[in-house]
Design a protein that fits this description.
single chain, about 25% strand, five-stranded mixed β-sheet, alpha/beta, Rossmann fold
Amino acid sequence: MMDFKDIKRAASLVMHSCGPAEAAVILGSGLGGYEEQLLNPVEIGYDEIPGFPASTVSGHAGKFIVGTIRDRRVLVTWCCGDGRMTSVCGGEGGGSSMGCGSVGIFFFCDTATTEIYTE
């Protein structure tokens, strides 16, 4: 599981690789393809972030993407709301560790808004 320092380092890597974003969007499994609407997308795979758990859920892209939609830079990733282990939860069986993986990264990336959409 990621701790506070791991999440802060991961956020720094995401921002360095993808650039800043005004808002963060967490998508449910059924919303794969949303990223195709983003203009000028830049991405980083979970496997490129030291200590970040791999997504094992079908329909999850396993990456963070920053792109523009409706004149806003957004940071996008996927999660699952039914308790399956995902990188958003940061722990086994949907448990959490220090503010949760992706949500913690959104915090340290200084996004003004975080929106969650499920399928």
